[in-house]
Amino acid sequence: MSCCDLAAAGQVTKAVKAGDIDAKTRRRIFDAVGFTFPNRLLTTKEAPDGCPDHVLRALGVALLACFCSDPELAAHPQVLNKIPILSTFLTARGDPDDAARRSMIDDTYQCLTAVAGTPRGPRHLIAGGTVSALCQAYLGHGYGFDQALALLVGLLAAAETQCWKEAEPDLLAVLRGLSEDFQKAEDASKFELCQLLPLFLPPTTVPSECLRDLQAGLARILGSKLSSWQRNPALKLAARLAHACGSDWIPVGNSGSKFLALLVNLACVEVRLALEETGTEVKEDVVTACYALMELGIQECTRCEQSLLKEPQKVQLVSIMKEAIGAVIHYLLQVGPEKQKEPFVFASVRILGAWLAEETSSLRKEVCQLLPFLVRYAKTLYEEAEEANDLSQQVATLAISPTAPGPTWPGDALRLLLPGWCHLTVEDGPREILIKEGAPSLLCKYFLQQWELTSPGHDTSVLPDSVEIGLQTCCHIFLNLVVTAPGLIKRDACFTSLMNTLMTSLPSLVQQPGRLLLAANVATLGLLMARLLSTSPALQGTPASRGFFAAAILFLSQSHVARATPGSDQAVLVLSPDYEGIWADLQELWFLGMQAFTGCVPLLPWLAPAALRSRWPQELLQLLASVSPNSVKPEMVAAYQGVLVELARANRLCREAMRLQAGEETASHYRMAALEQCLSEP
C-alpha cells in the first residue's frame, strides 16, 4: 500500500470518526469506497515504512464500523466474512496504551455488536469463533473487556444452546471468574453480578467450585438487611440454581440447612407481600422465582432420606409455606377469564400443584373453593394445547430473567394438577366437586390424548418421563373413582371409550421392556373397570376383550418364579427379575389386579375357558407344587386361591384340569380349604 493510499485512508476515517455524519453521508462514503478498500486495509502485509501493521487494520475496522451503522450493511456477506478476522483483534497482543489499538478494539466491538443486532447475526458470530474470542478478551481484562462481557450476555440471551455447544470450555472459564468475583465482592458489584450470573449457568453440569462460590456469595447477601432492588436479583439467581441443580448446590450440614431455610422463608414472605395486598403491582418475575424456591422447599420437606433439613426446620417451613400457598389461592380466586392465559397464572397453578401433590389436608376449605377454577383453567389450556406449551416456556423465562430461557417446565396445566387430584379424589367433598365440574371427562380425554403419544408409530424414546408418569397418575385417579364412585364409571360414556383403549393397548404394552409399571396400572384399571362394565357388548368375548385378558394373565402370571436353593430339595418362590426391582411400586397393583380378575370370572362366562387355554391355572398349580410352602407368604396364598377357586367354580373343564395337575394335594399342602373343597366336588 502506497503513502497516497494511506493518506486517503486517513482522510476517510477522519471523516468517519467525526461522529456527526448522517445516514446519507455514510452511504455516500460506502458508495465511494465499497468493501474493497477496507478489505485491503485489513489484509495488507505491505505497510509503508514506519507505519505499524495494526494502524492499517485500525483504519479498515473504522470504515467497517461506519458501514455497520447501517443494519442492511451489517448483514452484508462482506461484513459477515470478516467475523473471524475481527474476532482475532479482540485478543491480539500489543501496547495497551496505544491509541490506534484502543480505537481499533472499540470499532471491532461496534462491528460485532451491529452484526449481533441483525436477525441471523448471532448465528454467524457463533460460527465465526466470536464467543471464544469474547471469553478470552474478558478473562484477559485488557482494554474493552467490559464490552466483551456485554456482547457475551447478548449472544447467550439470543442463542444460549449454540453458544455452549461452540465454546463450552471458554464459557465455563468465564463462569468460574464471575463466580469467584461474586464470592469476593464487597461492594455494589455483587448485585450486578446477581443479574449476570444466571445467563452464564451451563445447560449441563455446573462446576462444583462455581456452586461453592455462588452459594457463599448468596448466603452473605441474603443474610444481610437489604432493600428489594438488592434482594430480588439474589432470589432470582438462587431460583436459577434451584432449577439447574435442585438442592445439590447447597452444602450439607448446619450452614446448608440454615441457608435453605432462609431461602424458603424469604421466598414465602415475598409471595405473601406480593399476593395478599389487593391492588399492589406484582413483580411477576420475582414472585415466580420465589415459587421455584418454595418448590425446592417442598421437595426437601418431603424427602425422607438425606434431606438437608432437620425435622423442626421442616415443621416450621411447612407452616410458613402453608401461609404462602394460602396467598396463592387468594390470588387465583381473583383471576378472571381475561387473565387465564397469562404466564404468571400458569406459574401460580404450578406451585399450587406442587403443594397439593404432597399436602391436601391443610387449607382444605380454600382448595375446595378453588377447584372449580382449576378444572376450568385446566380445560381451557388442554383445549388450546399449543398455547399451554408456549405458556410453560414463558414461565421459564419469567422465573429467570427478562431474556434467558430456563429449564423446561411441564407443557400443560393438567399434568401439574394430576398428583393433587389423585389425593383429592379419595376424599368425598373434593371428589364430588371434581365430578360436578366435569373433571373425570376431561381426564379421560387427556389420558387418551397422552396415550396416543406412546402408541405404535411414535418414537417413545424421545418422550419426557413426565408423559408416562402422567399416564400412571391418571390411572391412579381412575382407580380411586372405580372404588369410590362406581356409578360414575357405569353411566359416563367417556369411561367406555377409556375401557376400549385399555383393551386394545395392553397386549402390546406388556411386551415392551421397561414399561412394566405402566402395564400394571393399565391392566389393574382395566380389570376393575371390566367388573363394572361386564354387560358391555365390548366385553362379551370380542377379540379386543380376549386380547386384553390374555395380556392381563401374562402380567399376573409372570410375577413369581421358582428358584433352587443350595442344599435343599425344594425350590423357593421368588420375584421374577423384571418385577423384583419395582415390586415396592408394583405389589399393590398386582394384588388388586388378582382380586379384580377373580371378580371378573363369574361375570364373564367365556373367561374361565380362556384362562384354561392359556394354561395359567395348570402352571400356577405346578409352580406351587415345585416350591416350599414356607416360601409363599400368606397373602400370596390367598391371592392364588381366590383365582383358582373362581375358575374351578365357573367351569367343569377347569376343575378337571386342576385335578389332573394334583390340585387337591397342592391345596392341602397350602391349606387352601376352599380350593380343596371345590375340587373334591363333582
TrEMBL record:
<dbReference type="GO" id="GO:0048168">
    <property type="term" value="P:regulation of neuronal synaptic plasticity"/>
</dbReference>
<dbReference type="InterPro" id="IPR016024">
    <property type="entry name" value="ARM-type_fold"/>
</dbReference>
<dbReference type="Pfam" id="PF05536">
    <property type="entry name" value="Neurochondrin"/>
</dbReference>
<dbReference type="GO" id="GO:0030425">
    <property type="term" value="C:dendrite"/>
</dbReference>
<protein>
    <recommendedName>
        <fullName>Neurochondrin</fullName>
    </recommendedName>
</protein>
<comment type="similarity">
    <text>Belongs to the neurochondrin family.</text>
</comment>
<dbReference type="GO" id="GO:0031175">
    <property type="term" value="P:neuron projection development"/>
</dbReference>
<dbReference type="InterPro" id="IPR008709">
    <property type="entry name" value="Neurochondrin"/>
</dbReference>
